[in-house]
UniProtKB/TrEMBL annotation:
<comment type="subunit">
    <text>Component of the lipopolysaccharide transport and assembly complex. Interacts with LptE and LptA.</text>
</comment>
<comment type="similarity">
    <text>Belongs to the LptD family.</text>
</comment>
<keyword id="KW-0732">Signal</keyword>
<feature type="domain" description="Organic solvent tolerance-like N-terminal">
    <location>
        <begin position="34"/>
        <end position="165"/>
    </location>
</feature>
<dbReference type="InterPro" id="IPR050218">
    <property type="entry name" value="LptD"/>
</dbReference>
<keyword id="KW-0998">Cell outer membrane</keyword>
<dbReference type="InterPro" id="IPR007543">
    <property type="entry name" value="LptD_C"/>
</dbReference>
<protein>
    <recommendedName>
        <fullName>LPS-assembly protein LptD</fullName>
    </recommendedName>
</protein>
<feature type="domain" description="LPS-assembly protein LptD central">
    <location>
        <begin position="171"/>
        <end position="250"/>
    </location>
</feature>
<dbReference type="InterPro" id="IPR005653">
    <property type="entry name" value="OstA-like_N"/>
</dbReference>
<dbReference type="GO" id="GO:0015920">
    <property type="term" value="P:lipopolysaccharide transport"/>
</dbReference>
<dbReference type="InterPro" id="IPR045659">
    <property type="entry name" value="LptD_2"/>
</dbReference>
<dbReference type="Pfam" id="PF04453">
    <property type="entry name" value="LptD"/>
</dbReference>
<comment type="function">
    <text>Together with LptE, is involved in the assembly of lipopolysaccharide (LPS) at the surface of the outer membrane.</text>
</comment>
<dbReference type="GO" id="GO:0009279">
    <property type="term" value="C:cell outer membrane"/>
</dbReference>
<dbReference type="Pfam" id="PF03968">
    <property type="entry name" value="LptD_N"/>
</dbReference>
<feature type="domain" description="LptD C-terminal">
    <location>
        <begin position="272"/>
        <end position="633"/>
    </location>
</feature>
């Protein structure tokens, strides 16, 4: 379940009460209602109201000690504790004048508060042009709480466009704790959460890979459905670089284009760059498109210029175009797919095949003739690469099943036929370029659900016991002469106990005469049905050896599979635990395991503790978290260690201060960039002036990627 992001102003005190329903009308209208302790009438249609004067009309309120109402000119002058309110602003001043006809008003010595944005300020004069625009002279602007001017923007003139959600400041001075740090003759800033064009706050950082890193992004709000970010960047060890991103979002499609150019890398002595384009759409009803293009200039681009361990270890880049159709119970897909190999040391015969093209049809039609369920899978693919084998593969797999169901039980026999044919290119002389395989697939899937009520820890609970048995039979056929285009051994986990093939793709169909026995138990809250605990365990019993293998793999002769167990528990509202174990009873040892403990507390506190191992391959510990020391101060960190290699894969530690209107984050980070163990070390600082922008690098984005749950509200 996705978590909501922490609101930007959640640490702030409320300036003013929310606007009443009458004030929410953006266009003032209707008659004026006036109440006062005393009323005097003068000549020429001027009325003087005094003593707790309240002027009211829909969309506009005015309170003052004294008000002069000029009826012929339809103007109002207010004096003493003047307060003007409308849908967008609340202004408190010594005096004010409002033309009720043109809706233009001027306030002297004013304090103003923006309703839709946690912003306030002072001005020698505030001029309102209806509810759309405000002009302020000798003004200040901040998003800090009253009495706290941690940062403040001072300007000779400020223009606020409430319709566009943007402000302009002339001769602007930015102060931090009354210390001037920045002057700009003209500065543009947001006054609500809408997107606006303009320069974003520059980013400055440093790393051992590239030296000092300075970026000055420009955001271009092209249209409501399109925007772009253009970022000139300078790396002291590599040279100038240009990055760009274009995004679009329409009712029927969305996409993102990204690119970067480093004309001359001072370290590598050559041009470097990267490009990516992701697009998804639905041009017509039931039709869908997906485009994914990724290119880089060289094999160490991500190692040198990437920003994470996972990106630095990228081996292939996927390039793919999909066009699909979703019918009533069936699905069709056309695909063109290729790869750019990043690691060029990989030999040609080990690189993935391109699909030029792939056509796929899947269908499921339940409860048809005599209650039968009909299932169909069909695929034709043209596999191509520089190294043989290449060719076309046709795979057809229809299945019929007859489910029997009663409350708490099910019994489903199934019978299918899988027919796979190859039409190979450039086969050696004397070798048939056409091979095929046709095999029946028979299975029986049955199970039951038993349930009981119990009391535990003072709560009414329900416990289930769900035994399940799955029998599978597929006769043996020698497939050693078949090419291997996309097949590999499937990872063995709990759901795999009930699947008919232990290989991916269609190049191998295992022989099987086996029975899976498994059981699941659940602990449910009686009142809500929430799952507090789920635990499962299962194993396959083999009645014969498995002779179908992939090249380089031996036949499997064990009489039973490894025992698979998995568990998930909600220990408390804040704590959750997940685990998985694969145990080999023949070797009497565990082959694979993982455990993950998570804590999600109030105030943004979180803890992630993970352990995973795979025998003779990896053993890792991953710990990350955030701990609030006080209301505003917190520490954050990650420790990602490979026990098998005795190597620290990534370490990150930092401290942050987060208040109503500003935050500062300081993070040190080190991670491995390649299999040789080279590291990238960096120190990152970010000063966030909420409502204005960020100074320094985007530390917050880094923490969201590396510390699971960071920035989410629980």
């Amino acid at each position: 379940m996705a978590r909501a992001q922490i609101p930007q102003w959640e640490k702030c005190e409320r300036f003013i009460e929310p606007a009443s329903e009458e004030l929410l009308d953006p266009e003032p209208r209707g008659p004026v209602d006036v109440t006062a302790d005393q009323v005097e009438s003068e000549k020429e249609g001027i009325s003087i109201f005094s003593g707790d004067v309240k002027f009211r009309r829909r969309g506009q309120w005015l309170d003052a000690d004294e008000v002069h109402y000029d009826k012929p000119n339809n103007t109002v002058k207010a004096f003493g504790d003047v307060r003007y309110q409308d849908a967008t602003v609340d202004v408190i001043s010594d005096s004010a004048k409002v033309n009720l006809e043109t809706d233009i008003g001027v306030a002297e010595n004013a304090r103003y508060f923006l309703r839709d944005y946690h912003a306030r300020g002072e001005a020698a004069e505030v001029e309102r042009e209806g509810s759309a625009k405000s002009e302020l002279q000798d003004a200040t602007f901040t998003t800090c709480d009253i009495g706290d001017n941690a940062w403040q923007l001072k300007a000779s003139q400020v223009s606020l466009d409430h319709e566009e959600g943007v402000g302009w400041a002339r001769h602007a001075r930015l102060k931090l704790w009354d210390v001037p740090i920045l002057y700009a003759p003209f500065l543009r800033f947001p006054i609500d959460d809408r997107r606006k064009s303009g320069f974003l706050v520059p980013s400055v950082g440093s790393s051992s890979n590239s030296g000092v890193d300075i970026s000055t992004p420009y955001y271009w709000n092209i249209a409501p459905d399109r925007d772009a970010t253009i970022t000139p960047r300078y790396l002291s060890e590599r040279g100038p670089m240009l990055e760009g991103e274009l995004r679009y979002l329409n009712p029927r499609n969305q996409g993102k284009i990204q690119g970067s150019i480093l004309p001359h890398d001072d370290r590598k002595g050559d041009y470097r760059g990267a490009f990516s384009y992701q697009h998804t759409g639905s041009p017509w009803s039931r039709w869908f498109t997906n485009l994914d293009i990724n290119l880089v200039s060289d094999d160490t681009y991500f190692e040198d210029l990437g920003n994470s361990l996972s990106i630095a270890s990228t081996t292939y880049l996927n390039n793919q175009l999909d066009v699909s159709y979703q019918g009533e119970g069936w699905y069709a897909l056309g695909r063109f797919q290729g790869f750019q190999t990043i690691d060029r040391t990989i030999p040609g015969f080990s690189r993935p095949h391109q699909r030029l093209p792939q056509l796929l049809v899947d269908g499921f039609f339940p409860d048809r003739f005599l209650g039968l369920d009909l299932d169909f899978h069909g695929e034709v693919v043209n596999f191509q690469r520089d190294a043989l084998p290449n060719g076309v593969r046709l795979d057809l797999w229809p299945t019929v099943s007859l489910p029997f169901r009663t409350p708490g039980t099910f019994f489903t026999p199934s019978l299918g036929v899988r027919d796979t044919r190859y039409f190979l290119d450039d086969t050696p002389p004397g070798t048939d370029n056409t091979v095929s395989r046709t095999l029946p697939v028979f299975s029986i899937d049955t199970g039951a659900v038993f349930e009981r009520s119990l009391s535990l820890w003072g709560s009414r609970l329900r416990q289930t016991l769900e035994p399940r048995a799955y029998y599978l039979y597929i006769p043996f056929e020698n497939q050693e002469d078949f090419p291997v285009f996309d097949s590999a051994p499937l990872d063995f986990y709990f759901a795999r106990l009930f699947q008919p093939n232990r290989f991916t793709g269609a190049d191998r169909l295992n022989d099987a005469n086996q029975l899976t026995l498994a059981v699941t138990t659940r602990l449910l809250q009686s009142s809500t049905g929430d799952e507090l605990l789920r635990a499962s365990i299962g194993q396959i019993q083999f009645f014969r050896d498995r002779k179908v293998t992939l090249p380089g793999f031996p036949e499997e002769t064990d009489s039973s599979s490894s025992i698979i167990a998995e568990m998930a528990a909600r220990l408390a509202p804040e704590w959750s635990l997940r685990g998985e174990l694969r145990f080999d009873p023949h070797q009497e040892r565990a082959d694979l395991g993982s455990a993950e403990l998570r804590y999600r507390g109030k105030g943004g506190s979180l803890l992630n503790m993970g352990y995973r191992f795979r025998r003779q391959l990896l053993e890792q510990v991953d710990i990350s978290g955030r701990y609030p020391i006080t209301k505003n101060w917190s520490v954050v960190g990650r420790w990602y260690h490979s026990i098998a290699d005795d190597r620290l894969l990534e370490v990150l530690g930092g401290v942050e201060y987060d208040s109503c209107c500003w935050a500062i984050r300081l993070v040190g980070r080190s991670y491995i960039t390649n299999i040789e163990g080279d590291r990238n070390n960096s120190v990152m600082v970010q000063l966030e002036l909420k409502g204005l922008g960020n100074l320094g690098q985007n530390v917050e984005s880094l923490l969201r990627r590396t510390v699971l749950g960071y920035g989410e509200q629980f």
